[in-house]
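During the reporting period the student researcher (J.K.) took over the structure-prediction task from the postdoctoral fellow and processed the backlog of single-chain submissions. One of the processed entries is reproduced below for the supervisory committee.
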Amino acid sequence: MHNQATIVSEIVKKPEIKLLLVDDREDNLLAIEAILEQDGYSIHKARSGRAALRTLLKEFDFTLILMDVQMPDLNGFETATLIYERDLLKHIPIIFITANDYTEENIFKGYRMGGVDYIYKPINPELLRTKVGVFVELYRKNHQLLQQEQHLTRLNQQLMENVQQLKSTNEELERFAYAASHDLQEPLRKIMLFSERLSSQYTNLDEVGLGFIQKIIRAAGRMQGLIKNILEFSKSAVHQDAFEMTDLNALIESILSDLEVSIEQKQAVFIIEPLPILKTIPEQLRQLFQNLIINALKFSKETAHPEIRIYAKRVENKEGEQFYNIYVKDNGIGFEQKFADQIFTLFSRLHSYDQFEGTGIGLSICKKIAEKHNGSITAFSIPGEGATFVLELPAKVPEAVEQSLP
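J.K. obtained the following C-alpha cells:
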C-alpha cells in the first residue's frame, strides 16, 4: 500500500535546475561553473547582458541567474531591468556578483532592479554554493507546490465529471424505474383480475385451492402497492414540476379530508397550529405530508387513540438564512433513535409486513421531495413515546428556482 509520501513522490517530478551565469570574462564564468557543477546543476553561460537577453528569449525556465554587475555595454543592473520587463521572466531570482563594496544606496538600487542577493569577489566557494542552494531549494518547493496544485485541479475536474456522470446515470435509472413500474401494472392487473374470477366463479375448488388463490391476490395487492410507490419515488425526480405559493394550512386540511375514514376508524385527534405560506411544488408537498400522517395513524398504539400535532417554527442558520421547521409529532409506538437515518433509506422497514403493511418507500419519497425543495427531513423518537418528524424548508425560495417561476 502506498503511503502519502510515496503518492506525492509519484505525483511530483523532480525539476531540472538550470542556472544562467552572466559575466564578460570567461575565466570568471569557468570559476563559478567549477564551483557549482559538483551539485548537478544544468549551467548556461552568457558573456554579456545582451547575450543573456538573447538566451532568455528562447528559454525562460531558469531557476536562478548569477550576474556580474560591471559589464561593458549593458551592466548588470540595466540587464536586470530589461529581463524583468517580460512577464515570463519575472519569477527568476537574480544574484548580483561584484568586486565593489557598494554603499547602502547602490545596494538598494540593485534590490530595486529585482536582485535578491549579492556575492562579492573574490568569491567564497562555500558561500556561493550555500546561497545558490537556498534559492534552488525554494524553487523546488514552489515547483512541487505548483505540480500538486495542478494535480489537485485535475482530480477536482475528474471528480466533477464523475459527479455529473453519476447524476446522469441516476436520472436514467429513475426514468427506467418509472417506465418499468408503469409497464408492470398491466400484467399485474390481469393476475389480480383472473385470480378473483377463479375465486368467485369456480366453486369446485377445495379450501386448499381457494387458499392458494387468496394468497396470490394478497401478494399481487402488495406488489401493486410497491409498484405505485416506486412510480411516486421516480416521479419526484423525473418530473420538473413548477414551484408556486402554497398555503400549508389548506394543504393539510385537504389531506385530512381525504383521510377522513381512516381518521374516524382510529379515532385520531389532530392539533393543527398555524402554518406558513411557502413556494413549493404543491403535489409533492401533499404527498410528503400525506405519507407522514398515514404513518402516524399506522404506527399508533393499541392502548391509546392517535394524537397528532402539526406546527411550525421559523429558524435561522449560521449563515443568516431563514428556514421553517415544520413538525409532525405523534404519540405512537415510536422507534429507537439509532434507526433515525435508516428509515429514510429506500425499501427500509423496521417491522415485518405481518405487523404493519407497507413497502418501505414512503419515507424515501419524503426525503427526496424535501431535497428537491432545497430542504431536509429528520426524525426523533423514543420507543413507546411517539415520533417527531421535522421538515426543514427555506423561508425564501432559492434564486435558481425563483428564475424558473412563471
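The committee noted the following: Confidence is low (pLDDT under 50) at residues 4-11, 400-406.
J.K. will present the remaining backlog at the next meeting.
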